[in-house]
Amino acid sequence: MASTKTRQILSDGEFARTLERLAFEILERHDQSRRLALVGIQRRGVELADRLRRLLENRLGQEVPLGKLDINLYRDDWTTMESQPRISRTDIPFPVDDSQIILVDDVLYTGRTIRAALEAILDFGRPSRVELLVLVDRGHRELPIHADYVGKRLDTSKRERIDVLIQERDERDAVVLTEE
Ligand SMILES: O=P(O)(O)OC[C@H]1O[C@H](OP(=O)(O)OP(=O)(O)O)[C@H](O)[C@@H]1O
Ligand SMILES: O=c1cc[nH]c(=O)[nH]1
Question: What is the C-alpha separation between 22 and 16, in angstroms, rounded?
Fold first, then answer.
């Protein structure tokens, strides 16, 4: 049996501080914006976006709309996937036209999830701008996609896997690298 080695990349304290820094970076660029909205990609992007929303609302003193996106139907490997795509929920409860959207996901790897997410968002309307925030950018892009806000950049090998654990779903906050 192949052995696996696991290493913690972010502890719960580092995780919280990283989200606070990312919220400050958003505020630096979106000072007075009333058209700011967050969209989390299912699954853990949604919980991350919700954490960021609370941090932003505390600072801005105004509500920041939060949407959820399930990109499974937009995947470019849909027809070759062995199992049926898992359908969770898409809910965009704000007008997308002219909004400034920050798309939130846990890990950026090939970029194919983000490509699909952009296609999904554009089906709802025409935002004035879309930016990307990820907790971990692990490299190995297969498309010309980059993140505007990055929690942690990691040089990884393709044999490694990054898992983001989040309290609301996994009972603790952490980022873990597994080498197979
Ligand atoms: O840049 P990419 O190569 O597209 O990879 C990044 C995506 O992979 C993971 O999702 P996964 O498909 O594992 O589903 P999950 O979020 O439901 O666990 C992760 O949450 C990102 O959304
Ligand atoms: O390492 C990886 C690659 C894709 N998606 C993840 O969540 N982790």
Answer: 10
Q: What is the interface pTM, i.e. ipTM, of the complex?
A: 0.94
Ligand located closest to 134 CA: 1
What is the per-residue pLDDT for 79?
A: 65
Distance 61 CA to ligand 1 centre (A): 32
Cis preceding linkage at 43, omega within 30: yes
In degrees to the nearest 10, what's the CA dihedral of 166, 28, 41, 55? 40
> Is residue 81 situated within a structural domain?
no
CATH number for the domain that contains residue 69: 3.40.50.2020
Q: Determine the residue of 75, 113, 163, 169 to mutate for testing ligand 1's pocket, defined as the one with the most ligand atoms within 8 A of the Cβ atom.
A: 113
| Atom nearest to 41 CA in ligand 1 | 22
Does residue 143 belong to any structural domain of this protein?
yes
User: Does residue 101 belong to any structural domain of this protein?
Assistant: yes
**In the structure, which protein residues have their CB atom closer than 6 angstroms to any atom of ligand 2?**
107, 109, 138, 161-162
Global model pTM greater than 0.90: yes
